[in-house]
Amino acid sequence: MDRCKGDSVEFFPKGEKRAEELVRRHRLSLRLFYDLFALDGAEAEACKFEHILSPEVTDSVCTLLGHPPNSPDGKPIPRGECCTMFRREMKPLVVPLADLVPGEHAKIVFITPESHSRLDRLSAMGVVPGSNVKLHQKRPSYVIQLGETTIAVDKSIAKEIFVKKM
User: Fold this and answer.
1) How far apart are CA 119 and CA 68, in angstroms?
2) pLDDT at position 1, please?
3) Cα–Cα distance, 145 to 136 (Å, whole number)
4) Which tens digits make up the pLDDT trace of 142-165?
5) Three-state helix/strand/coil letters over the chain
């Protein structure tokens, strides 16, 4: 049985594990609905979807999304066994834009912005999941090209944009 202490809740180990699994499923579902499907009601759909995910499907969703570290609202996604194996056994398919070498082409997979206003500004410039980018330079700023548009971003922003090399 779980215990309450003032404003906090303390779980026994089994309850702690179940709570972490539920949080992981919810945040991965939210990331899936928000990034891939761009649903306005992503939160409500994620709340429904999280309850039907098996551990195997949860790991598949995590792998599909490139083992994202955070949900769209910036909350950390608890790591699963797939994340540990992914980092140990394979070169990541999805990396921060900051890890590209000038001249490399990539597709934006997801963005983990510091704030919603930053995401809005990036979106207005065309920096959205699914966009193809080319990194031109890293210093003094990261200069990327999206179609006919060339923009410069700080390193902190380049670390928030996750891409798949092409």
Assistant:
1) 16
2) 44
3) 7
4) 999 999 999 999 999 999 999 999
5) CCEEECCEEECCHHHHHHHHHHHHHHHHHHHHHHHHCCCCCHHHHHHHHHHHCCHHHHHHHHHHCCCCCECCCCCECCCCHHHHHHHHHCCCCEEEHHHCCCCCEEEEEEECCCCHHHHHHHHHCCCCCCCEEEEEECCCCEEEEECCEEEEECHHHHCCEEEEEC
Angle at CA of residue 93, ends 65 and 42, nearest 5°:
15
Average pLDDT, the chain: 86
Query: Is 90's pLDDT higher than 80?
Result: no
- Alpha-carbon gap, residue 133 to 153, rounded angstroms: 13
Q: Are 149 and 131 in contact (CB under 8 A)?
A: no
At residue 142, what is the residue type?
Y
Q: Please answer whether residues 113 and 160 qualify as being in contact, where contact means their C-beta atoms are separated by less than 8 angstroms.
A: yes
How distant, in Å, are the alpha carbons of 43, 69, 109, 120 from that of 128? 19, 18, 8, 10
Judge if pTM exceeds 0.70.
Answer: no
**pLDDT surpassing 90 at residue 9:** no
